[in-house]
């Protein structure tokens, strides 16, 4: 079972491979969450959102910097979505499989 989710913010228009490798990333821990429950999923969503905000923070408030921050957040959210869905589905599948095994004795 995955215990963490790695989020990356790769921009669509990256001028060079070096810039792509320097794209920000963050890790979100899921080991203490029960992702088979709504409460656990809500906590994961909050952690992902907080990680994205920290990861995409910029040092300025001009239009270009704010646009860069918005692009980073969108890219990171898009990157995280399938990973979050996979983690939740894995938790649900494991939970229901355990119930089925226990019911059979």
From TrEMBL:
Which controlled-vocabulary keywords does the entry list?
Answer: Signal
Q: What is the species of this protein?
A: Qipengyuania psychrotolerans
Q: What is this protein called?
A: UrcA family protein
InterPro entries from the UniProt entry: UrcA_uranyl
Q: Which residues form the signal peptide?
A: 1-18
């Amino acid at each position: 079972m995955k215990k963490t989710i790695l989020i990356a913010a790769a921009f669509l228009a990256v001028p060079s491979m070096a810039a792509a490798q320097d794209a920000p990333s963050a890790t979100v821990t899921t080991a203490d969450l029960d992702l088979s429950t709504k409460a656990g999923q809500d906590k994961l969503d909050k952690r992902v959102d907080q990680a994205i905000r920290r990861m995409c923070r910029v040092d300025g408030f001009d239009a270009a910097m704010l646009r860069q921050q918005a692009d980073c957040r969108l890219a990171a959210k898009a990157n995280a979505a399938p990973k979050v869905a996979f983690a939740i589905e894995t938790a649900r599948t494991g939970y229901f499989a355990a119930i089925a095994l226990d019911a059979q004795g």
